[in-house]
Write a structure and sequence with these properties.
The protein is α+β, with helices and mostly antiparallel strands. The protein is built from three helices and seven strands, in the order E-H-H-E-E-E-E-E-E-H.
Length: 134
Amino acid sequence: MTTFEARVIHVTIERDWREVYDFMADPMTMPRWATGLSANMRRDGDDYIADGGPIGEIRVRFAPHNAFGVVDHRVTLESGVSVDNALRVVPNGTGAEVMFTLLRMEGMDDAAFERDAAHVLSDLKALKAILESD
């Protein structure tokens, strides 16, 4: 069995958790705050296709809408490499806690892991800014 180092990156959002979930569970809102996905996202059956810029086309499949705040999604690169991303929204008082579990994949050096963590935190801060200003 193989396990990877994990880091939970989170932000607190001053908005009802269900509203946060509804926004995040709509794949078409992701390009507004998740910089790894472009504004050119389009639906393709059960998946969404996004232009990933220099890494090429990205196929994304999201967890079905649910009552538990789960916004997990599988990202598949043109190379065929797939990464499962655990993304959750949970109640935090009258607001919400949004948590992304970042896994340090095999062969990833310290600098790359720190860059990925900073990128995720930046995206979550953008999400917070959008949802707290609406």
